[in-house]
Amino acid sequence: xxxxxxxxxxxxxxxxxxxxxxxxxxxxxxxxxxxxxxxxxxxxxxxxxxxxxxxxxxxxxxxxxxxxxxxxxxxxxxxxxxxxxxxxxxxxxxxxxxxxxxxxxxxxxxxxxxxxxxxxxxxxxxxxxxxxxxxxxxxxxxxxxxxxxxxxxxxxxxxxxxxxxxxxxxxxxxxxx
Amino acid sequence: xxxxxxxxxxxxxxxxxxxxxxxxxxxxxxxxxxxxxxxxxxxxxxxxxxxxxxxxxxxxxxxxxxxxxxxxxxxxxxxxxxxxxxxxxxxxxxxxxxxxxxxxxxxxxxxxxxxxxxxxxxxxxxxxxxxxxxxxxxxxxxxxxxxxxxxxxxxxxxxxxxxxxxxxxxxxxxxxxxxxxxxxxxxxxxxxxxxxxxxxxxxxxxxxxxxxxxxxxxxxxxxxxxxxxxxxxxxxxxxxxxxxxxxxxxxxxxxxxxxxxxxxxxxxxxxxxxxxxxxxxxxxxxxxxxxxxxxxxxxxxxxxxxxxxxxxxxxxxxxxxxxxxxxxxxxxxxxxxxxxxxxxxxxxxxxxxxxxxxxxxxxxxxxxxxxxxxxxxxxxxxxxxxxxxxxxxxxxxxxxxxxxxxxxxxxxxxxxxxxxxxxxxxxxxxxxxxxxxxxxxxxxxxxxxxxxxxxxxxxxxxxxxxxxxxxxxxxxxxxxxxxxxxxxxxxxxxxxxxxxxxxxxx
Lengths: 177, 506
Hints:
The complex is a heterodimer.
Chain A: E1 2-7, E2 10-20, E3 23-28, E4 31-41, E5 44-49, E6 52-60, E7 66-71, E8 74-82, H1 83-94, E9 100-103, E10 108-113, E11 120-121, E12 126-132, E13 135-140, E14 145-150, E15 157-158, E16 163-169
Antiparallel strand pairs in A: 1-2, 1-8, 2-3, 3-4, 4-5, 5-6, 6-7, 7-8, 9-16, 10-12, 10-15, 11-14, 12-13, 14-16
Chain B: E1 5-7, H1 11-24, E2 28-33, H2 40-44, E3 47-52, H3 63-73, E4 77-79, H4 89-97, E5 101-102, H5 107-113, H6 116-125, H7 141-151, E6 155-159, E7 169-171, H8 177-192, E8 197-201, E9 206-215, E10 221-223, E11 227-233, E12 236-242, H9 249-264, E13 271-279, E14 285-291, H10 298-305, H11 309-317, E15 334-341, E16 343-344, E17 350-351, E18 354-355, E19 358-360, E20 367-371, E21 378-379, E22 386-394, H12 397-410, E23 412-414, H13 420-426, H14 430-433, H15 441-445, H16 448-451, H17 458-483, H18 486-490, H19 493-502
Parallel strand pairs in B: 1-2, 1-4, 2-3, 4-5
Antiparallel strand pairs in B: 6-7, 6-8, 9-10, 9-11, 9-13, 11-12, 12-15, 13-14, 15-22, 16-17, 18-21, 19-23, 20-22
Helix pairs in contact in B: 4-5, 7-8, 12-13, 17-19
């Protein structure tokens, strides 16, 4: 299987072959890793690579393509999408290039929605305040745009990944001449 | 001693108090909100009662319900922990009215020290140094300008009822005084329902150093060696150590004696902490406030003195005389506390409530973990994000830091992100290692963009995620073949598995 892996903006092609049970060959870009694999506990992988052991916790978020990988106390949020699926997704997203579907980064209560449909927002502008664990967290727009729709409602609880609002990109129109 | 103690709190502090009670042979009662039904403090107590829905104003702050539980179960004392009702005068008085001992100081001490202005007046009269500035609240813009000239710049504008950085303004120039006065007043009113503000000198390279005091009901009071709590984020302490790298024995004695004078100003008769702001340049110290309760960071003092502060606080409330004198208090070795929060250091420290799917807690010599966590616990969104306090002791500061690094490397919390890796990085910081810290340390040394750094095992993470995706897809494909209708669904298991094997992808 061939996947496209993304971590912190770095994209890598990952080819996975299982020549026999418990042995994987994973090719990341140009580098090939021969991996002796064991799963001593559910979602805990023991990877033996070139004689060195790595204990890795791999948690697929809600069974999706994003994996929370924990190694030596560090979390790595890795997206691993099958190549064919990734290409299809890229083709589909071309129609709505730059559109920002803002989703809740965590569970919490919506304290304030500071924009409404039709509002123009700037990149970095706070559009919503989400309260969780006694902290008020500012949710900011990543792009300059126009608010297309707002799903979030003040006072209503949201779960991580719930849609909050959609921002369509806006580009200034300059008069000719 | 008391017959039964109710702990009006949740999480790790409740478990800490329960442990002390068990060692004193006193039965314990926990209270909990609907969100905390499965919390560890509920399981640790001898009895536990639900006091209302998840929001704390409907449960942990409802002292009428807590007192009802106390009456129902026969508790004759209440320990408030920290936060929630711990510094609430009305609650302390309501306990007394019901004939229940409030495990804390007398109500007057809570009232006087709970307000920045009254506390400053009280300690000033006892000769405790204050930051140069106003002793009363500002009444007009003209007065603000007049005082600004008298104090000299830089100046801090502060809310009288303040805390948590609200109503706080740094003023560098005379032309900014009036705007800062108006902004601080309105923010203070919004945050605390009180718009009183005052001004004082801004201290350069400020360090937050505090003195633990312990008093009894017989007029005895002692101080412990200081705790340094300068490493803070959003005005919340993140790492504390004892003793401080700035303080020598002479300064320790001067600060301790000042703390005793502050405590005596209100006839202090319990465990409490006098906080000082200390200039990292001149080493002058000034009274900041007094916390009239047990504090989160009390274990580091316990580690270097060998005194169980929680137990002594309970014994003092029960009327026992302090079992030691000032000259009996040692300062032995070094202790460090890391507060582990349910926050994502790679994503602007956003809170990370959710289920703890796996947990491995550090152990070994001189390591203490105070936590309410267990595997399978759902960390709720309703309360403070502190998950645990990891405390270590070392005979030297160097050994203490090495031990904390070791303990952090053992600590694995799975399912949610925590600040454990952030702590590990801080302990490697050159300035931290040299003890060159102040309250701006985190802002100066750790920019959010630095946290999104390349991590040492990125390739291994990609390999693991690729194997995870492959195994998931393979399992899905096997499952799908068996479940489909039509020719494939009718196929025998060996045929189905053969078809999967022929898939070029596998």
